[in-house]
Amino acid sequence: MPLSPSSPEPLVRLKDVHLSFGRNNVLKGVDLTVKRGEAVSIIGPSGSGKSTILRCINGLLAPDRGQILVGDTAVHALRSESARIALRKRIGFVFQQYNLFPHLSVLENIVIAPVRILGVDRATAEREAGELLARVRLADKAGAYPGELSGGQQQRVAIARALAMHPELVLFDEVTSALDPETVGEVLAVIRDLVHDGLTCILVTHEMRFAEEVSHEVVFTEGGEIVEHGAPAALFHAPRNARTHAFINAVSH
Questions:
Q1: Residue 151: its pLDDT value, please?
Q2: pTM of the predicted structure, to 2 decimals
Q3: Do the Cβ atoms of 176 and 187 come closer than 8 Å?
Q4: Distance between CA atoms of 110 and 130, rounded to whole angstroms?
């Protein structure tokens, strides 16, 4: 269990968020608060709205109703693409698929956004990229190309690329689900280190032991609703809701 953040200030607040695709109600009144310095894991069965919550937070999806705040930004009220892009500069998003540029080296994949989007000078961007590669345990891979790396290594580059934008918040969406079992651990170890260093993040994950270990809070979703949330030890070992208990029991066997 990581140390609790010293500041209780909320960074992310969702209040009564609803979202439908046609007749399919994907989110049904979601409430969620994430404080600065916290790691919050979202668990639940497929199709329960976990990834949709992340996409609402960074403005990729707009809720039908409800409020989403990231810091002082009312995400639900953003109407222009330029405003959404400004929001996404502050939020790192690491997807299941790595989405690296195959024709660019590892270093170039990390440097390109800070230089082009943030206007960081190239020397500074390259220095910071080297530091980030060391942080994700890939200091010797700056000159390699994505096709020369394992899936786990590519995912760690994707994490470094997200961190290069100095985000306030990082969203991890099932980042190990496409990996071979032997490479899952190396990605989780990097995330564990980042959480220990105080990274504010929300993780959608099916890695239950990892969620229990690194999270300040765990949220269980089902059918587009947050059924239960709480401290990892309580939710995993003494859930109050029968649906939570059934899910934990099913995935633990």
A1: 94
A2: 0.94
A3: yes
A4: 9
Per-residue model confidence (pLDDT) at position 13? 97
Pairing of strands 217-222, 39-43: parallel
Please name which of 79, 75, 61 lies closest in space to residue 14, comparing C-alpha atoms: 75
**98 or 153, higher pLDDT:** 153
Q: Which two tokens stand for residue 201?
A: 């993040």
How far is 37 from 124, CA to CA, in rounded Å? 26
Residue 31 is given by DSSP the state: E
How many angstroms separate the CA atoms of 205 and 247, rounded?
14
Q: Are strands 10-21 and 65-70 parallel, antiparallel or unpaired?
A: antiparallel
Strands 10-21, 24-35: pairing is: antiparallel
Q: Please report the pLDDT score of residue 253 as a whole number.
A: 61
Please, are residues 239 and 208 in contact by the beta-carbon 8 Å criterion?
Answer: no
Mean pLDDT of 150-156: 95
Give the pLDDT confidence of 1-48 residue by residue, as tens digits: 566 655 568 999 999 999 999 999 999 999 999 999 999 999 999 989
Pairing of strands 91-94, 65-70: unpaired
Cα 151 to Cα 157: distance, rounded to the nearest angstrom = 10
Indicate the helix (H) or strand (E) that contains 66.
strand 65-70
